[in-house]
Design a protein that fits this description.
The chain has 354 residues and is an alpha/beta fold. 51% of the residues lie in helices and 9% in strands. Helix 10 runs antiparallel to helix 13 and helix 14 packs across helix 16.
Length: 354
């Protein structure tokens, strides 16, 4: 499959008919996000069954032609580990692609090897070794070298073939509907383009945090996110996750000490807002966590782990993909809002542990 650099609007118009006529395309992006909140899209790669296109979005003004294809529900877009690509595309094209097939998610249903890289799949299925390390490349630099174009196109070169292989395997093992359900739920726009008020859901929150502290944490996380968006800088440059947790769980009298111990110098504006959140937050949405019967808690975890072993072996799916440690701990504490009590996970595991 030959590679084509598309770096003018005219060249883009020349390839649109061929892409539109394809029922399945491979899709990938190259972007930079080291010092910004929003990803800076540098390249959009598209593969059809015949060609690999390296689309230089920096030198192209037409966004509508490709956004039409991205929104076309009749065209399957095959992406590997797609969330960051979808976020970059959404930020640049202001549209959220439809009909995604994520090869990483698909593979998770077929082998007890969770979340493999794209290069591992290419090696496994085609015995081809791809060069890794694109994160070290300055994709914004122009002109693009032949080496960079080859590298970028390799990221989509095998996606259409992988789609057919994985799709057929899933169908043969009667897991295709599970995969479609997982892609539909996991790649729902609200799970990828997260609103500031919901960004706390991405934090690794301990079960020990009480509901009053959780309310504080949510407000602090939203404050940090809005500030990062306004300044277009990484959220960790405002406050690290560890500092969010320390502030959320400290006593009001300890706040100044906690802040002074951090290496990051908070601006006066942020510092005042943090103090206001901590000192004025008297809202408790729910009663504090009920005391847990330790014996029952550990017995429930042991039951889940024992059943998990047999389920994982039976379906050849990694335990962590069915239910991670936090899911099981929350379930053992009486929390019913866990992933394995819904959908395909419930059918193979959740109903067995209730």
């Amino acid at each position: 499959m030959p590679n084509f650099l598309v770096n003018t609007d005219k060249k883009l118009q020349n390839i649109i008919p061929e892409i539109k006529s394809s029922s399945i395309i491979g899709l990938d992006t190259e972007f930079i996000r080291e010092s910004t909140y929003f990803p800076k899209l540098a390249l959009l790669q598209i593969a059809t069954t015949n060609y690999n296109y390296c689309i230089d979005v920096i030198n192209i003004t037409d966004k509508n032609s490709l956004s039409d294809i991205l929104l076309d529900n009749q065209v399957i877009k095959v992406i590997h580990s797609s969330k960051q690509d979808l976020e970059s595309i959404f930020n640049y094209y202001k549209c959220y692609p439809k009909n995604i097939f994520d090869t990483q998610i698909a593979f998770n249903f077929l082998y007890n090897e969770p979340n493999p890289s794209y290069s591992k799949l290419v090696k496994k299925y085609f015995d081809i070794s791809l060069k890794e390390g694109s994160w070290r490349t300055n994709w914004l630099e122009r002109p693009l070298s032949d080496e960079k174009i080859e590298y970028a196109c390799n990221d989509v070169r095998y996606l259409v073939k992988l789609y057919h292989i994985l799709h057929d395997q899933l169908q043969a093992e009667q897991k295709l509907d599970w995969c479609k359900e997982e892609i539909r739920n996991d790649l729902e726009i609200d799970n990828v383009i997260v609103k500031p008020k919901d960004i706390w859901k991405r934090l690794n929150i301990s079960n020990k945090i009480n509901n009053h502290q959780l309310v504080t944490l949510k407000k602090l996380a939203e404050l940090r996110e809005n500030e990062a968006i306004t300044k277009d800088i990484p959220r960790k440059w405002i406050m690290a996750d560890t500092l969010l947790f320390k502030i959320s769980t400290c006593k009001a009298s300890q706040l100044d000490q906690v802040i002074s111990d951090t290496r990051v110098k908070l601006s006066t504006k942020i510092l005042n807002k943090v103090r206001e959140i901590v000192l004025n937050n008297k809202t408790v949405l729910l009663k504090d966590n009920k005391a847990v019967n330790i014996e029952e808690y550990h017995a429930q975890i042991a039951k889940c782990n024992n059943i998990m072993d047999s389920v994982s072996n039976k379906y050849n799916i990694a335990p962590s993909f069915i239910a991670n440690k936090k899911d099981i701990e929350n379930f053992a504490r009486g929390n019913k809002n866990v992933r394995f009590l819904k959908g395909w996970r419930f059918n193979i595991f959740g109903k067995l542990v209730q």
